[in-house]
Amino acid sequence: MNTRYIPALSFRWLTPLYDPLLKWGMREETFKRRLVNQANLQPNMDVLDLGCGTGTLTVMLKQAAPLANITGLDGDPQVLSIAQNKAAQGNSNIQWVQGLAFDLPYPDQTFDVVVSSLVIHHLTASDKLRAFQEVSRVLHPGGWFRIVDFGPPFSPLTRLQSDVMKNLEEAADNFAGRILPLLEKAGFHAQVEAQMNTIFGPLAFYAAQKFGG
Question: Where do the domains of the chain lie, and which CATH numbers do they carry?
Answer without folding.
Answer: 13-210 (3.40.50.150)
